[in-house]
Amino acid sequence: xxATENTAANTLLEGYIDDAFAEPDAVDVTAAAPRPQRNLxxxxxxIPVTVTLEVGSARISLQDLMAIEQDSxxxxxxxxxxxLVIKVNGTPIGRAEVVVSGENYGLxxxxxxxxxxxIVTS
Length: 122
Hints:
It comes from Noviherbaspirillum cavernae. Belongs to the FliN/MopA/SpaO family. This is Flagellar motor switch protein FliN. The chain contains 4 helices and 4 strands, in the order H-H-E-H-E-E-E-H. By secondary structure, the protein is α+β, with helices and mostly antiparallel strands. It has a domain at 38-121: Roll (Surface presentation of antigens (SPOA)), CATH 2.30.330. The mean pLDDT is 78.
């Protein structure tokens, strides 16, 4: 590096060196843009969840499972006509009945026992 390049480099670096070793009080904190506030309830409302309707369940042996064929009937632990369990991401939150909605099945909510949405609505 020759003398002219060395002088030019020193001139460029002077401003950076002065800023790097400046006193903390001399730093301009007003230049930083404020971070936007996050609204947790609004963010939570956008989280996708899976809603399922559980008809019932049965506990059987592996031998019985292997014996199941096309026309087999497996008795469930719910009575016919009994409300079904609504689950959100696998957690029971209430009971419902099956209805027809257009060409699809739907659910008619009977009650909501385990659904506490206070944190989302506040």
